[in-house]
Amino acid sequence: MTTPNTNTTALALSPQTQTQTQTQTQTQAVIIYTDGGALGNPGPGGFGVILEYKGKQKEISGGFGMTTNNRMELMACIEGLKALKRGCRVKIFSDSQYVVNSMQKGWARKWRANNWMRNKKDAAENTDLWEELLHLCETHDCSFEWVRGHAGNPKNERCDQLAKAAASQRGLPVDQGYQDRQGDIDLSPKLP
To answer: Are strands 43-53 and 30-38 parallel, antiparallel or unpaired?
Structure first.
């Protein structure tokens, strides 16, 4: 990804040139590949992200000490979108049908509209992350596409490597959203 040009010459563009530049930025999509997982599910988890824009590529990864696969799949999308400095048209590729179907079919928006209920008796899970993802998707023009995991897609495979490496690190931070869901159960490892 390129860094936005912040020199003062950009401020001196004519209104017509500024509009053309804005239109070009809006028509060129940022491509984001994502993957996430937890070792043990729940267990230590990680996410990996590849952002592509105008031939440039950036990798992002991170992890948590105790989390779930679904939370890391969501976190990958969130962190990819958070890396963007301004509103963009974005195409997100994920091997998580949970994420892709929830966004493509409007389930996540419906859950939010129904006070985070999937139906009359079942609450939606990971609402903290869904709320953040929906907010980011209101800032960007996002589309989601499913890719088969572990099927030879080089970008998906690289995201998987990043996620596993992040989940394997020592001293990972707490996934507060996961921890809060567990109530008063202390899942942190006991140190001597």
So the answer is: antiparallel
∠169-172-174 over CA atoms, to 5°?
155
Domain, as residue range, for 43: 24-178
Q: Which residues are catalytic?
A: 35-36, 73, 95, 150, 160
Q: Indicate whether 189 belongs to any domain.
A: no
Domain count, the chain: 1
- Residue 50's Cβ-side half-sphere holds a number of Cα atoms within 13 Å equal to 18
Q: What is the pLDDT of residues 25-58, one digit of tens each?
A: 455 799 999 999 999 999 999 999 999 999 999 9
User: Would you say residue 143 has pLDDT above 50?
Assistant: yes
Judge whether 187 lies within some domain: no
